[in-house]
Design brief:
Helices cover 33% and strands 21% of the residues. With 141 residues, the chain is of the alpha+beta class. A hairpin with a 4-residue loop joins β4 and β5.
Length: 141
């Protein structure tokens, strides 16, 4: 059965979308309900699509991709690219970095104050550094 975002939770999700400049459509609200349920999460579009299907939410994979990118552009998510073929969407948009477990395809948050980045080059004229993403790749010893 589809997860319904009614009452306080649904109103909060709708308000969050509106504040980010997004119209709270049914599909956005349903996907937001899965994404922002309890704790910070790292999801691929495919894993969110599977979760939506399991919850009875009728949504295409293309819509999931579009919604994730809309949420990212609106500042609700952070995209973490681990290689050319794989990226995750992170509900934690605060200052932090990641461990990536190669064999498991899993991201683990590293607190922002645990890594210091130095020697960042001066950006080209007319640009500024938005952020520096660090992904430390792990493998089983």
């Amino acid at each position: 059965m589809a997860r319904k975002l009614r009452g306080k939770g649904g109103e909060k999700a709708a308000e969050r979308l509106r504040e980010a400049g997004l119209r709270p459509t049914r599909q956005r609200l349903e996907l937001a309900g899965l994404l922002f349920c309890d704790e910070d999460r790292h999801l691929s579009a495919e894993s969110l699509h599977a979760e939506a299907q399991e919850a009875g939410i009728k949504v295409s994979l293309a819509t999931v991709y579009n919604t994730l990118h809309q949420f990212t552009n609106a500042g609700l998510l952070r995209q973490v690219v681990v290689d050319a073929a794989r990226s995750y969407f992170d509900t934690n948009i605060g200052d932090h970095q990641h461990f990536y477990c190669e064999g498991e395809g899993r991201l683990i948050d590293i607190p922002g104050d645990a890594i210091a980045v130095s020697g960042v080059p001066t950006p080209p004229r007319g640009t500024e550094i938005d952020r520096v993403d660090v992904v430390i790749r792990l493998r089983r010893a």
